[in-house]
Write a structure and sequence with these properties.
Chain lengths: 303, 266
């Protein structure tokens, strides 16, 4: 199938399709090799990496909710050293590797960005929006000055494109987006999960070990589309839209709202090959609307 | 490992809230090993698949047992024969292939993967009797013995019927003493181990039960494999929903397991 209509460019990266796999839902990409042509993806945002290994949260980590799920994994990962030594060499030629990173301090983001300024890393995604850890993540994503500070720290330390992943758990996402843009971000990705909670009414116990978790899946798509649309009006850097995308129609909605690319997350769990189907169907959608390239769809929502 | 679109041959209640699902899935059956599991897509309305242990692969059919506990399994219980199901499998590592006489110790739904282990042992034993060497095992394969536990007679009756064609001896316990020995499988295990020499113990069920079984196995120096159940999203080792602590660090039940050497986890 001719996919040239999906070829595009983002922060200097050439993309076969504007479809990414969202961090935390796709491991290190290789887990999906039986189901996905990894080179056909725009890239894979690998599982979030921190300076030191993290064991993640205890107890129940996921629960299904109406049209979605809550997760509270807690950034379990082997740490940057193991990633660079053992994992990156294994995966770097198989896909565009975008490394999602989280730190406990502004300096951590600088250190991580510097360590990732190596061959095989296509871009760095700053996770300032994880709702499931106490020492980092979302505390940087809900304050304009902190968000700008971590962005600047990363930008100073690397030659790679820096993508900042924004949290929806804020009053005005455009204020954070503008602050991050001013600090030098090359690209934004939004949204991360919405903080939520579930209580079992039979046992009266909170389901998740972490008590609260991040809501993802179809349920959050309208929130994500709204936030992408608002942010696209407020900034000039490109946006990777994410949140509940399960089909090419869902993806098209994000492009219309102003996203230059999309990332698919929770939908990978039920359908490991869903990104390929979305690519096929999106190409057909473009042809059906007489468009030659996905870029022609970006930001075309009419009021 | 791949996705299969298969036909439901039957989906019947076998006890209160417990169902037996039989699928026409020859390709999956041919590649699946005892101890592995599948991820069943309930419908497009559900965000996640549901992981179930494989209970049988005989005759090109894959058998699954499930307890109706929530919306997903309730929906599944209403599917009828002739309808189709989308399943991902076979996932996980499965039990170590071995010969000798193995004791299977299970409680509740944990008996499902053990049924597949019993079926495999019987198949291997029959192949040896017909002089068709099934696999290069160091010990001659024999039919397994089973020690099973449940809450009451209703919960173990159908399991006995399922195991009977494949097991040599069945030992029984119930929490209420309505059938078999009163108590838990761990109460009955010392007597069972005193009667015969087992090459290995495979156990699956509540964690507290498996811990008790593993302890007794270690005391007797019998190799023991345990099979874990955890909530899962992907089943492919990507989401880390099912991470557990082991002596070798964090491991994923879906990919590194669900079967672990007892010494690695208890």
């Amino acid at each position: 199938m001719d996919n040239s209509c999906l070829q595009t460019e983002l922060c200097g990266l050439k993309l076969n399709t504007p479809i990414f796999a969202a961090s935390g839902t796709f491991g290190f990409g290789e887990e999906f090799a039986d189901f996905v042509d990894l080179k056909r993806l725009g890239g894979v945002m690998v599982k979030c990496i921190t300076l030191k290994p993290r064991r993640g949260n205890d107890g129940v980590r996921i629960t299904e909710t109406p049209s979605g799920m809550l997760n509270a994994i807690g950034l379990e990962n082997p740490g940057i050293e193991t990633f660079l030594l053992k994992i990156l060499p294994r995966i770097k030629d198989k896909m565009n590797v975008i490394v999602n990173v989280s730190g406990s301090s502004v300096e951590d983001y600088g250190t991580l960005a510097k360590m990732l300024d190596v061959d095989g890393v296509a871009a760095i995604e700053l996770n300032i929006s994880c709702p499931n850890v106490k020492d980092g993540g979302i505390i940087f994503g809900t304050d304009e000055r902190q968000a700008a500070a971590v962005t600047a720290a990363a930008k100073r330390s690397t030659s790679k494109p820096v993508i900042v992943k924004l949290s929806p758990n804020v009053t005005d996402i455009t204020a954070i987006a503008r602050a991050v843009e001013s600090a030098g971000a090359d690209c934004l990705s939004l949204i991360n999960t919405l903080m939520g909670m579930e209580i079992n009414v039979d046992t009266w116990r909170v389901t998740l070990g972490n008590k609260t978790g991040g809501l993802s899946g179809g349920a959050i798509k309208p929130v994500a589309v709204r936030m992408v649309w608002q942010t696209a009006q407020a900034v000039n850097i490109p946006i990777i839209g994410t949140g509940g995308i399960r089909s090419a129609q869902d993806a098209a909605e994000f492009f219309l709202a102003g996203a230059a690319a999309v990332a698919v997350g929770t939908a990978n769990f039920a359908e490991p090959s869903i990104t390929m189907k979305i690519a096929d169907d999106l190409a057909a959608y473009l042809r059906g609307h007489g468009l030659k390239n996905i870029r022609e769809l970006v930001g075309k929502a009419k009021s | 490992m791949k996705i299969f679109d298969v036909e439901i041959l039957s989906n019947d209640a076998v006890a209160a809230n417990i169902f037996r699902l039989i699928l026409d899935a020859p390709e999956l059956a041919a590649q699946a090993k005892a101890g592995q599991f599948v991820q069943v897509k309930i419908s497009d309305e559900f965000t996640l698949r549901r992981p179930f242990g494989i209970a049988s692969t005989a005759g090109g059919k894959v058998k699954i047992f499930y307890r109706q506990v929530g919306r997903g399994t309730e929906f599944l219980s209403r599917q009828r024969s002739g309808e189709r199901l989308n399943i991902l499998g076979a996932l996980g590592n499965g039990y170590t292939a071995r010969g000798g006489k193995v004791l299977l110790v299970g409680g509740g739904m944990g008996l499902a993967p053990l049924l597949c282990a019993a079926e495999t042992a019987m198949r291997n034993a029959q192949c040896v009797m017909r002089n068709e060497n099934p696999c290069p095992l160091s010990l001659v394969p024999c039919p397994s013995d089973v020690l099973m536990g449940g809450r009451n007679a209703g919960e173990v009756d159908f399991w006995q019927a399922e195991f009977r064609p494949f097991a040599e001896e069945i030992f029984l316990t119930t929490d209420d003493g309505s059938v078999g020995k009163y108590g838990f499988v761990t109460d009955a295990l010392p007597d069972v181990l005193a009667k015969k020499n087992y090459a290995a113990i495979l156990t699956c069920g509540p964690e507290v039960m498996m811990r008790g079984v593993a302890k007794l196995a270690a005391e007797k120096n019998i190799p023991c494999e345990v099979s874990f159940e955890k909530r899962m999203a992907c089943g492919l080792g990507a989401c880390l929903s099912c991470s557990i602590d082991t002596v070798n660090g964090r491991r994923k039940v879906c990919k590194d397991g669900p079967v672990f050497d007892a010494k690695e986890v208890f």
